[in-house]
Write a structure and sequence with these properties.
About 15% of the residues lie in helices and about 30% in strands. The chain has about 425 residues and is an alpha/beta fold. Strands 5-4-1-8-13-10-14 form a seven-stranded mixed sheet. A seven-stranded parallel sheet has the order 17-20-23-26-29-32-34, with no helix packed on it. Strands 18-21-24-27-30-33-35 form a seven-stranded parallel sheet. Strand 6 and strand 7 form a beta hairpin. The radius of gyration is 23 Å and the shape is globular.
């Protein structure tokens, strides 16, 4: 049997707690992005466009929607007899079984799968970043350097370097030190969490570190161990658009990047398409009084109101007199008449009544989750309902089938407050 040159292992099991209610019922890579896509589509499409035909997707937290979306890999041409896509969940092995405890630990638990594929090289990817990258160029760099490991890096402003894991390199790009969020960084080469390893070397490292760290992680353990052993590690510089959409603000900002007059991230290039599992939808309809400006509308939308600088998913209905501004509205959502939606993120299958105002008032952090909701964006979770004639402030979280009794006497939810009826929400 011919040896496989490269296998992609895609880490897609994260909870994404900083996305708040958006990940209450689904893993972060399954969150909708750009109207019709899910976040994981970008990494999977990168694999296909880079000529990688064998992908293992490691899932864990709330995997149902993600598993359904990936299926057997048809949209990405990964439904193959040899290779293709394989979903790898935590499993019982012998008389024991446990959750994946770290990024490297997840691969350690799937050594048998990797050995069965028998790759020469492994590319380790995250399923929660928005970018386009040709991994074949990175692999060529890895082979030219005869590297044991190659780490993709992005130059960030020096003043922001202390927020990232930083790779310090010699002039030939060989890595001599890794610093996690250093207070006084020596360089501005931030790790992107994209690695290529020579499998024989990585296999040895995974087994060795598993005996020391139950939560074995690439950034915390494997990379420092390889540097300590004077292994051959190189930094591969990436120049292009890359966003970690792990917070409400970064997720909102990345979506807003798509509606610029000249978007920095172009999803319309024929030579590097982004693929997804999408059904045939009817065309977009705008009513006689409708207005749309600098917005991205997916198929099946019906717009009778005004949409400005916003992203609408498939089958979104916008009633007459409603104004949506600087917002993200995901698929199968209904918004009634004469509403004002400002700087909000509204998840899938949400119903909003008439005369609802959202995103008004002062910008105060959320009382219960100040680290999640602190940038003025109000978020509505999947399958939620909001009754008519209510006013909702900024940095609010709404989740569940809300009624007027859930709001104060003035039918208001002040800025920074939450209504979370998770037990009543239907999945």
């Amino acid at each position: 049997m011919r040896k496989k040159e490269i296998l992609a292992m895609l880490l897609a099991g994260g909870q994404g707690s900083r996305l708040g209610v958006l990940t209450a019922t689904k893993a972060k890579p399954a969150v909708t992005f750009g109207g019709k896509y899910r976040i994981i589509d970008f990494t999977l499409s990168n694999c296909v466009n880079s000529g990688i035909d064998t992908v293992g997707v490691l899932t864990q937290y709330q995997p149902l929607l993600l598993n359904q979306h990936i299926g057997i890999g048809i949209p990405w041409d990964l439904d193959r007899r040899s290779g293709g896509v394989t979903v790898l969940s935590p499993h019982v092995k012998g008389d024991s079984g446990e959750w994946y405890m770290g990024t490297a630990n997840a691969l350690f638990h799937n050594i048998d799968y990797i050995d069965n594929v028998d790759p020469e090289y492994i590319v380790v990817l995250s399923g929660d970043h928005i970018y386009k990258m040709d991994y074949s160029n990175m692999l060529s760099f890895h082979k030219d350097k005869k590297a044991d490991a190659t780490i993709a890096v992005l130059e960030v402003p020096m003043l922001e370097a202390s927020r990232f894991g930083i790779m310090n390199c010699h002039d030939d790009s060989r890595i001599y030190e890794f610093e996690e969020k250093p207070p006084e960084p020596k360089s501005n080469l931030a790790s992107m969490g994209i690695y290529i390893f020579t499998w024989e070397i990585l296999r040895e490292m995974l087994i060795k570190d598993s005996g020391v760290h139950r939560d074995s992680d690439f950034g915390k353990h494997i990379i420092p161990l390889m540097i300590a052993q004077s292994r051959s590690l190189y930094a591969y510089r990436f120049c292009g658009y890359w966003r970690d959409v792990g917070t409400i603000e970064s997720y909102w900002s990345a979506n807003m990047d798509l509606v610029q007059a000249v978007p920095e991230f172009n999803m319309y290039e024929n030579f590097w398409q982004i693929y997804t599992d999408s059904f045939n939808q009817p065309p977009i309809y705008t009513g006689p009084g409708a207005e749309t400006r600098t917005s991205l509308l997916a198929d099946g939308c019906e717009v009778y109101g005004t949409v400005i600088n916003s992203v609408l998913g498939t089958d979104v209905y916008v009633g007459e007199g409603t104004i949506i501004r600087d917002s993200i509205v995901m698929s199968n959502t209904f918004i009634g008449q004469n509403c004002e939606i400002n700087r909000c993120v509204i998840d899938e299958h949400v119903s909003i009544g008439d005369h609802v105002k959202m995103g008004t008032g002062e910008n105060v952090p959320n009382e219960s989750k100040p680290r999640v909701y602190d940038c003025g964006i109000t978020v509505v979770g999947t399958n939620s309902k909001i009754p008519s004639h209510v006013n909702i402030g900024k940095n609010c979280e709404i989740y569940g089938n809300t009624v007027h009794d859930n709001y104060n006497d003035d039918n208001c939810l002040p800025s920074g407050k939450s209504i979370n009826l998770e037990s009543e929400a239907t999945i």
